[in-house]
Specification:
Strand order of the largest sheet: 8-9-7-10-13-12-11
CATH topology of the largest domain: Dihydrodipicolinate Reductase, domain 2
Helix content: 25-40%
CATH class of the largest domain: Alpha Beta
Distance between the termini: 26 Å
Order of helices and strands: EHEHEHEEHEHEHEHEEHEEEH
Structural class: alpha/beta
Shape: globular
Number of strands: 13
Number of helices: 9
Largest sheet: 7 strands, mixed
């Protein structure tokens, strides 16, 4: 029986992973008592007994957990930012490039960031098709539900006497130093980070990542962009390309809440267009992606236990 340990199972990502795994008969979860959850020796033992260990921790704690692992057979899937562009780690986005084969062989897998997942899904195929220059400076607008901010933000939004400022969308990352920018630049192969505008809104889960393009950025037109995506994601089970999602002229950011898949669409005209990826920030943007990576690393059907 495959042994799985979730280090940091009390956080939102860890809880969603646990929910997805608890009903599986091919896995056995290693659990720690509440008193041992932060005990270094108990964690060390669990990490080294595990066939797969999910790290759902802050960056420094994730790096510390990696140093605890001496078992060469333990597969580590880190959901923090700590190792996403670090040498020796495989970036866990199987649908781009040759990542699927690399993930299957990897012992160290860095799970993608939520905003970054949408941006990379949109931009990597265009870079590969030479449809945009690597030195282009793109912009990215991304809406997320408040669950993306973890337990503290969830509690803040769900207080009955919360601040009225939380009743409207709030932009953050204003100084253009957001922690996802490194992977958003390095993974698709861009030379410059995008101008990134993340926004948290007063709904629980769901993400909508948008990249606008004009004739100055690319020779593409909406129909040719759509063709590139259809080729890039042909046969994929967790990413679909939708020509025109019908929501009466609107595109809801929570349409994929509760699911582990992603939808890509293209909108616009010959002069300007927008590329959009919709998914759950806790699904394909976090826990769902982590489980997909685990399935690949264990040689299982990669959608096992996921909600499409």
């Amino acid at each position: 029986m495959t042994q799985v340990f979730i280090d940091g199972s009390a956080g939102t990502t860890g809880l969603r992973i646990r929910e997805r795994l608890e009903g599986r008969e091919d896995l056995e979860l290693i659990t720690l008592t509440e008193e041992n959850r932060k005990n270094p020796e108990a964690r060390r033992d669990a990490l080294n007994r595990a066939d797969v260990a999910f790290l759902c921790l802050p960056d420094d704690a994730a790096a510390e957990a990696v140093r605890m692992v001496q078992n060469p057979d333990t597969v580590i899937i880190d959901t923090s930012t700590a190792h996403r562009t670090r040498e020796g780690w495989v970036y866990g986005f199987p649908e781009i490039g040759k990542q699927r084969e690399l993930i299957r062989k990897a012992k160290r897998i860095a799970n993608p960031g939520c905003h970054a997942s949408g941006f990379i899904a949109l931009i990597a195929p265009l870079i590969q098709a030479d449809a945009i220059r690597k030195d282009v400076i793109l912009s990215c607008f991304s809406l997320t539900g408040y669950s993306g901010g973890g337990r503290k933000m969830i509690e803040e939004y769900e207080k009955p006497d919360r601040s009225p400022l939380l009743d409207a969308p709030r932009q953050y990352g204003l100084f253009q130093t957001h922690k996802h920018l490194k992977e958003m630049t390095a993974v698709p192969g861009l030379q410059n980070p995008p101008v990134f505008c993340p926004i948290v809104a007063p709904y629980y889960a769901g993400m909508e990542v948008t990249v606008p393009l004009s004739w100055a950025d690319t020779w593409l037109r909406p129909e040719t962009a759509l063709e590139i995506y259809e080729r890039a994601y042909f046969g994929e089970k967790m990413i679909t390309v939708a020509e025109r999602p019908d929501e009466s002229g609107f595109l809801s950011a929570c349409a994929y809440a509760g699911r582990d898949s992603m939808e890509i669409s293209v909108w616009g005209n010959e002069d300007r267009m927008v590329l959009t990826a919709r998914f759950d920030n806790l699904g394909k943007g976090a826990s769902g992606a982590a489980i997909q990576n685990m399935n690949l690393a264990l040689g299982k059907e990669e959608t096992t236990g996921l909600v499409r």
